[in-house]
Amino acid sequence: MGKADSCPAPTKPNLNWHLINHSKADHDLRHLIVDLSRACKYISYAIQTTEAGLAGTKNEFGEDQLALDVLADNLIREFLCESGLVCCYISEEQPDIVELDPEGQYSVVFDPLDGSSLVDANFAIGSIFGIYKDGNVIGATPREQVAAMYVLYGPRTLLVVSLGNGKGVHEFILNDVGEFVLLRDHLGIGDDAKNYSPGNLRAITTNPGYKKAIDSWQEEEKTLRYSGCMVADIHHILSKGQGVFSNIGGGEGSKYPDGKLRHVFECGPFAFLAEEAGGAASDGTMAILDKEITSVDQRTQIIIGSKNDVESVASLVS
Ligand code: AFP
Question: From ligand 1's centre to the CA of 228, what distance in Å?
């Protein structure tokens, strides 16, 4: 009797099963994604149980590090080391590229805990990951990612992953026995947004194009959905099947001249997921996926979500 006869599809496909049978992930990439998901289970548990106090240290960008930031960064590092599959990684909490196993075939870029300033308010927060095939992330473009994934720690812990190449964007939920099981497969983003999610709104005082974009969204009577955590705000778009999120710069002399968000571990992975879901991501002049990564701390403007809205806002802010 063949394997197919003796092993019917499970009623609740788990992440590992889905990566093998649906995404046809190669062996090592599948192991790496599953290892990252294991780290996120510990992070999810830590968020439920750890004091959300400051660690008293500052990260590379001068921001206060929460104890949970440090913990999440350490946990992910431990799982990457254990995997033996990763030659280097870039983390929001580390100033430089961190070298790991010279034999490893992959590099991973990540924000271990995005939205961590919201922890004490008990808002949803998340972890973001992009995976590249070799160690040369600087000089690459996010289109070269072989997978992107995020985990959203909200009332429920959700994991969304894609291996690109038309394999789709899939959502899993962490169940009570600690398994990520399939919740919805093939999340999609429609062409027109009913919801808008405007970040770095302080830029409208110095960037008239951004002001026009916000005015047009209000005139169109779109619904505002903005939490202050990129993972939660973009998950809202993928979950509802439409929406547009922006983080636009205020130009020279402003707090964030090029927008607040980092190209390599925030915008790149989300752009990969959005395009795979049928949406778009632009910096105002070009697709985020085609924008070269020049440094670890490079910031970029981003408009992401429903294609028509991304296009119209890009024409105003570029
Ligand atoms: P923290 O990780 O410091 O909380 O920042 C979250 C974030 O990088 C991203 O998730 C949000 O979209 C963005 O900052 C929010 O920025 P504003 O506070 O300027 O709206």
Answer: 5
Question: What is the widest separation between alpha-carbon atoms in the chain?
Answer: 70
- Cβ atoms of 14 and 181 closer than 8 Å: yes
Residue 9 has pLDDT above 90, yes or no: no
Residue 153: pLDDT band (50, 70, 90) is: very high
CB of 115 within 6 A of ligand 1: the answer is yes
Q: For ligand 1, atom 13, name the residue with the nearest CA.
A: 228
Taking domain 15-184, whether its CATH number is 3.30.540.10 is answered by yes
- Residue 11 has a pLDDT of 86
Tell me how long the chain is: 318
Architecture (CATH level 2) of domain 195-317: 3-Layer(aba) Sandwich (3.40)
What local confidence, expressed as pLDDT, does residue 97 receive? 97
Residue ranges of the domains in the chain? Answer: 15-184, 195-317
Sign of CA dihedral 304, 308, 311, 315: negative
Ligand 1 centre to CA of 229 (Å) is 5
Statement: residue 242 has pLDDT above 70 = yes
Ligand 1 centre to CA of 73 (Å) is: 17
CA of 114 to the centre of ligand 1 (A): 7
Structure confidence at residue 4 as a pLDDT band (50, 70, 90): low
pLDDT of residue 156: 97
How far away, in angstroms, is 242 Cα from ligand 1 center? 21
> Cα dihedral sign for 189, 159, 124, 72?
negative
Q: Left if phi > 0, otherwise alpha if psi is -120 to 50, otherwise beta: which for 251?
A: left
Q: Is 72 in the pocket of ligand 1 (CB under 6 A)?
A: no
For residue 126, which atom of ligand 1 is closest to its CA? 10
Q: Is the beta carbon of 227 within 6 A of some atom in ligand 1?
A: no
What is the per-residue pLDDT across 75-117, written as a single tens digit (0 to 9) for each? 999 999 999 999 999 999 999 999 999 999 999 999 999 998 8
